[in-house]
Amino acid sequence: MIGSDPKIEETSAAAYTIPTDAPEADGTFAWDSTTLIVVKLHCEKYTGVGYTYSHMTAAPLARELMKKHVEGQNPYNTNVLFSNMRKAQRNYGRDGVAATALSAIDVALWDLRAKLMGKPLCQVLGQMRDGAPVYGSGGFTTYSDKQLRNQLGGWASDGIPRVKMKVGTHPEDDLRRVKVARDAVGDSTELFVDANGAYSRKQALWFAERFVSEYRVSWFEEPVSSDDLAGLRLLRNRAPAGMDIAAGEYGWTAMYLRNMIEAESVDVIQADATRCGGVTGFMDAAALADAHPLPLSAHCGPSVHLHLACAARPLRHVEYFHDHQRIESMLFDGFRKPTDGVMYPDLARPGMGIEFKSADAEKYRDDI
Ligand SMILES: [Mg+2]
After folding, report:
1. How many angstroms is it from 270 CA to the middle of ligand 1?
2. What is the spatial distance between Cα 105 and Cα 70, in angstroms, rounded to a whole number?
3. Single pTM value for the model
4. Pick from 174, 216, 172: which is nearest to 195 by CA?
5. Å from CA of 64 to ligand 1 middle
6. d(CA 280, ligand 1 centre) in Å
7. Has residue 303 got a pLDDT over 90?
């Protein structure tokens, strides 16, 4: 197909708001629904699909970006299209909702490009590994002890060797909840915590020492706000051996991630292709991690990260987030469940290997 100059003929973007299966909260936010934005690009007989989790206004924003910068263009020119869209966002701000709209479009461009080539996306990017190791992620602070035990213990008994829970909503309850989790998953499962920036610096340090010494927690995500790079660095330097400090999920651009890495704020850099610029932005993040060097962990959206994780050179794992795996298994044909803690791409399916079930999703569609 290369050289035949295909053109993107038609584009669309829609928002779907899906209720959670139970009230969910972390250390700094609570929610009862999640909004999925799905982008489609049509070219010849192929449809490129991309998605993000964002505010519903990302859908009209994506439609406008595609009308002006994607329709009529050659889908192989991903760098040109990415750069033109980024430039167009200067005056209303490139971060946040704008970055998620751009990310969903870029993912759809790469999915389309791989489908035009008749290859799975991981092979188009250059495959590094057969599968993507995952960690089970949930353990919301709204959960009862029973819900916490069932969810985390369920992942452990499914063969996922690492799980993550939320902390920070009620700090006085956190040591007790972490004990419930450790007892549920047993000694051989790695236990991670995510405070979503809820603790103060010294409070986080106090918890870091106890989480390690009492419950062998090996990953402490956003112990303080990700905006507090000096605070993250304090934790990184003073947390006990055996505990990694991780952050990066709000990285909207490669420069954000570079600043976080250069401030020596994290042991593991996280990146999210549905926020940091799609496939283009995620592979930039992988190159940054490779160059410093730091391990990279993919944040949420397991279906989009499966192929990227199989291609990125530095990669520790992909977050198998309860909310997102539930939505993606309902609405994406071709969703891949992990086997013994590893997701494997279906190499017989071109692109990302997923198709959006529009008819099933129709009842969740937002009028925007
Ligand atoms: Mg997090």
Report:
1. 9
2. 9
3. 0.97
4. 174
5. 30
6. 22
7. yes
Provide the total of helices (H) and of strands (E) in the chain, helices listed first.
13, 14
Distance 240 CA to ligand 1 centre (A): 20
State in Å: Cα 259 to ligand 1 middle.
18
Gap from CA of 196 to ligand 1 centroid (Å): 6
**pLDDT of 64 above 70:** yes
Ligand 1 centroid – CA 221 distance (Å): 6
C-alpha closest to that of 248 among 125, 237, 263, 326: 263
Tokens for 173, please give them: 């309850």
If you measure from the C-alpha of residue 63 to the centroid of ligand 1, how many angstroms do you get, rounded to a whole number?
29
Q: What's the 319 CA to ligand 1 centre distance in angstroms?
A: 9
Q: What percentage of the chain has pLDDT greater than the value 70?
A: 99
Domains and CATH numbers, the chain: 10-119+358-364 (3.30.390.10), 123-356 (3.20.20.120)
Distances (CA, A) of 240 to 203, 210, 219, 345: 14, 9, 11, 36
- Residues 33-47: pLDDT tens digits? 999 999 999 999 999
Q: How far is the CA of 138 from the centre of ligand 1 (A)?
A: 10
Contacts of residue 233, defined as CB under 8 A and 6 or more positions apart, other chains included, come to: 263, 264, 265
Residue 2 structure tokens: 């290369």
Structure tokens given for 37: 């934005």
